[in-house]
Design a protein that fits this description.
The protein starts with a strand and ends in a 5-residue tail after the last strand. By secondary structure, it is of the alpha/beta class. It has a six-stranded parallel beta sheet with strand order 9-8-7-6-10-11, with helices on both faces. The chain is 19% helix and 27% strand. The radius of gyration is 17 Å and the shape is globular.
Length: 227
């Protein structure tokens, strides 16, 4: 969904790559690792499974348009992990809120899968903005995580072009939508917010969160473009 492909890598000659959920790596395909043709992508797989690394990549341009042509057995090189966009560094937080737009769902998906594998029972809220319902990547798995006992997960979809008879949120993620769905908070560390998506969306959401009184230190963003 969302014109995205998931690329799965398995280790060759080692036990795998340890990373924190939400981090990214530089990926090289069909070239030498020294050829300066690497591209940054967030892990979408669970950090609890270092022997099975997943990257979910939307077809957007030159390199990404070739992802669907990759065949089993091709060699890939990784440089990583990198980045601080991870819940693993926020152990004392009681609850997490994730706000994702489009393919910006990938680092959040890695976090959700990891928390599920670890049996983490902290309350979670995912606000997922998409152009339309068919473009909601990972839709079926998110619904499975929401409706089973693996996570304490609440999901709010915000569709720019909702289908007929849609009874969820529509348009863009605004302060009004956030006010309706955010957990109640009275002091820092009640919950922390992780935002990833198109740059204009992240800027607007940050402003909305500030207007609602969410502390600057409780807001985390992933701001490189090739997620």
């Amino acid at each position: 969904r969302g014109n995205a492909w998931t690329l799965i890598l398995r280790p060759e000659g080692h036990a795998g790559l340890t990373f924190h959920p939400g981090q990214f790596a530089w990926l090289t395909l069909r070239s030498s690792p020294f050829a300066d043709r690497e591209h940054p992508f967030s892990f979408s797989s669970s950090a609890a499974q270092p022997q099975r690394l997943g990257f979910t990549i939307r077809e957007l341009g030159d390199f990404t348009s070739q992802i669907g042509q990759v065949r089993a057995g091709e060699r890939a090189y990784l440089d990583g992990p990198h980045g601080a966009f991870t819940t693993d560094r926020r152990e004392g937080v009681a609850s997490f809120v994730f706000i994702a737009g489009g393919v910006g769902i990938t680092p959040t998906m890695s976090i959700l899968r990891t928390l599920a594998d670890r049996g983490d029972r902290r309350p979670l809220l995912l606000i997922y903005a998409s152009r339309d319902w068919e473009g909601v990547t990972f839709r079926e798995e998110i619904e499975e995580l929401r409706t089973t006992s693996r996570l304490d997960l609440r999901v709010v979809y915000v569709l720019e072009r909702p289908p007929a008879n849609w009874d969820g949120e529509s348009g863009f993620v605004t302060a009004d939508i956030l006010r309706r769905h955010l957990p109640r908070f009275e002091h820092p560390n009640t919950f922390e917010v992780f935002i990833c998506g198109p740059q204009p969306m992240m800027d607007a959401v940050e402003r909305a969160l500030h207007s609602l009184g969410v502390a600057v230190g409780d807001i985390h963003t992933e701001r490189f473009d090739l997620v």
